[in-house]
Amino acid sequence: MKLGKTSIALAVVATLMLLAAIAVVALNRDDDLPRAPEAAARASDADLIARGEYLVRAGSCYGCHTEPGGAPYAGGRAIETPFGIVSAPNLTPDGTGLAAWSSDDFWRALHNGRSRDGRLLYPAFPYPNYTRLARADADAMFAYLKSLAPVAKQNRPHALRFPFDQSVALAVWRALFFRPAQFETDSAKSPQWNRGAYLVETLGHCNACHSRRNVFGATAGPLDLAGGLIPIQNWYAPSLRDNAEAGVGDWPEREIVALLRSGTSARGSVQGPMAEVVARSTQFLSEDDLEAMAAYLGSLPDGTDATRRATGDINTASAPSEAGAKLYTTHCAACHGDRGEGVAGAYPALAGNRAVAITPPANLVHMVLRGGFGPTTPGHPRPYGMPPFATVLSDEQVGQVLSYLRASWGHHAPPVSTLEVSRYRGAR
Ligand code: HEC
Ligand code: HEC
Ligand code: HEC
């Protein structure tokens, strides 16, 4: 009798496992490949390649697929993830790169997240965004990459921890979190808005940073954009749906365009990973495309929570400490001004700067410890720099000076503890 129950239980478990395996296989099936459109075939090679180069820049392919100091697009850069290291491969038309690839293979990688040999690809490659690319755009990008000089560079093997190095784990992840998809045009919106949504959702892969991730590293959808801490780097990519964070719903369109074009604008400037996005990608976009992105970003509803709005400028945090005030006067006021007013065109104002008030203090800690330069762009040819204070101030002092900024100009934001500074100091 007992044996009978056990075997029934085993049979149920075995059946469930079989069904789960069938489901995982079924959910990893490729989407049917749309045929290459005739428009791409008709365009002259030079036009196609030029358009492809533009799109490859819009997609920031360079940053991941180029090793620091290495040949462009020849791969080798190690992308650190919470699950281990994934190396970005060679995209030049060499035998070690894309020489043997067809445009169908390339499309399959971007759209289905599958390599030429059928292997599933890790989502450190943001194909959950690129899946929505138009086929014609993928073909143009492929034509551009094929036009590059071939560089012989064998791809480095990944170094993922068990069980993340198992293809079964990746198949299950994809069954749960990835489906090949197409961009859906919203016919109630203008063509400009739709163009902006397409760029933000697909090539710009803005949500790869500006979105929460669950414990499996999956983002909450390409248009979530509600802000998230970037794993490993520990920079906080603020919410694009909250005008108190990175939302631009209350910015004039020309300021949004200026920010994406030059990295700086009258309303704010970019730092850290966002400076790379501007330097490598958005500064090269056409005026029309930047205006389209601005129209889309500006239309996102403001999700600033009601309590925050109600507190407005009233500072409910602790009073500024004397130690913090002294540190500010000694180390910061020369550039940022005695009252945090900054110097127009050179040093950002800290008074009224929303970056000071964003609750996770990650970016403030990074700025003070490591300093930084804005991106070098034609609108900002010689950006002013901020010196790193990692060897000048102790963690406690960094906490004190940041708590001073918060208490003076951070609205309701809580002070920054020594512990938080130490936590982010460890991160890169
Ligand atoms: C955030 C980093 C990142 C960005 C941005 C990125 N890639 Fe990748 N890419 C990777 C990584 C990592 C892999 C390796 C994935 C794997 O092997 O499982 C990869 C793999 C690929 C592959 C598969 C190659 C092969 O040998 O299987 C292609 C094709 C590719 N990327 C093209 C692109 C293009 C085109 C762009 C720009 C539109 C781009 N990538 C942007 C990180 C990136
Ligand atoms: C590699 C990660 C990453 C990607 C990709 C990324 N961002 Fe950001 N972004 C950040 C971080 C981190 C910040 C906060 C630091 C700062 O303000 O510069 C930020 C800040 C911003 C801000 C606020 C700037 C300010 O002055 O307040 C805007 C607007 C923005 N991003 C838009 C975008 C758009 C649009 C895209 C897609 C084209 C994008 N970001 C892609 C990481 C990223
Ligand atoms: C030599 C001039 C200089 C000094 C001294 C200096 N800063 Fe800065 N600071 C800058 C510049 C330039 C930037 C913009 C850098 C960039 O865009 O990456 C900046 C940016 C910042 C930001 C980011 C603002 C934003 O919009 O996100 C913060 C916060 C900040 N500084 C705080 C401080 C604090 C705190 C001190 C003193 C411990 C300090 N700075 C000292 C020049 C300076």
Written overview of the protein:
The longest helix is centred in the N-terminal third of the chain and has 26 residues, at 2-27. The chain has 428 residues and is mainly α. The protein is built from 19 helices and nine strands. It is 44% helix and 5% strand. It has three domains: 37-177; 191-299, Cytochrome Bc1 Complex, Chain D, domain 2 (Orthogonal Bundle), CATH 1.10.760; 314-426, Cytochrome Bc1 Complex, Chain D, domain 2, CATH 1.10.760. The strands form four sheets. It has a three-stranded antiparallel β-sheet, with no helix packed on it. It starts with a helix and ends with a helix. Bound molecules: heme C (HEC) (3 copies). One heme C is lined by residues 56, 59-61, 63-65, 79, 86, 88-89, 91, 106, 109, 115, 121-122, 124-126, 130, 141.
- The coarse silhouette is globular
Helix % is: 40-55%
Strand order of the largest sheet: 1-2-3
Q: How many individual domains?
A: 3
What radius of gyration results from the CA coordinates?
24 Å
List the helices and strands and how they pair.
Elements lengths: L1 H26 L10 H5 L2 H14 L2 H5 L12 E4 L2 E4 L15 H10 L14 H4 L4 H13 L11 E2 L6 H11 L13 H11 L26 E2 L6 E2 L15 H10 L1 E2 L2 E2 L2 H9 L6 H13 L6 H6 L10 H10 L1 H4 L17 H4 L4 H9 L1 E2 L11 E2 L8 H15 L8 H9 L2
Antiparallel strand pairs: 1-2, 2-3, 4-5, 6-7, 8-9
Helix pairs in contact: 1-8, 3-7, 5-7, 9-12, 10-12, 14-18, 17-19, 18-19
The chain binds heme C (3 copies).
